[in-house]
Write a structure and sequence with these properties.
Blueprint (H helix, E strand, L loop, with lengths): L4 E4 H8 L1 E2 L19 H9 L5 E6 L6 E5 L6 E7 L8 E5 L8 H21 L1
Parallel strand pairs: 1-6
Antiparallel strand pairs: 2-5, 3-4, 3-5, 4-6
């Protein structure tokens, strides 16, 4: 089993570039990027290329939320679509409560690590 690497949410937004799909029904969900977990939004997410779909989940045991690759049904908050594929890489992004951001150099270092992991996942794909 592959080890999952956890990144800060800043890395997700900087590298994967989530966007609001023009057919999304709810404009205020997850900063305007989220797709609802039911109805037309759910169908939109299921029809989209799965390498570009993410699930925001609540883990329940802490105040953190997570962005994880692919479709997940348990503890889901919403789905996100991104411009960059994840290739089912063993990665997760932690969303901490409160204002926590990476420094520019820390962000650059983590993106370098992310690119290596994605390259390995793409090679296996």
């Amino acid at each position: 089993m592959q080890k999952t690497t956890v990144f800060h949410e800043d890395v997700f937004y900087e590298y994967f570039r989530p966007f609001r799909h023009p057919l999304a029904r709810f404009g205020d969900l997850w900063g305007g990027h989220g797709l609802e977990t039911y109805g037309d939004d759910l169908q939109l997410a299921f029809k989209y290329d799965s390498d570009y779909v993410w699930t925001v989940v609540d883990c329940g045991e802490s105040s953190n939320e997570w962005i994880i690759p692919g479709f997940h049904r348990v503890n889901r908050i919403c789905f996100l679509l991104t411009e960059v594929a994840h290739f089912d890489a063993p990665i997760e992004f932690r969303i901490e409560r409160g204002p926590h951001s990476l420094t520019p150099i820390g962000l650059a270092r983590r993106i370098t690590t992310l690119k290596r992991i994605l390259s390995e996942a793409k090679a296996k794909d």
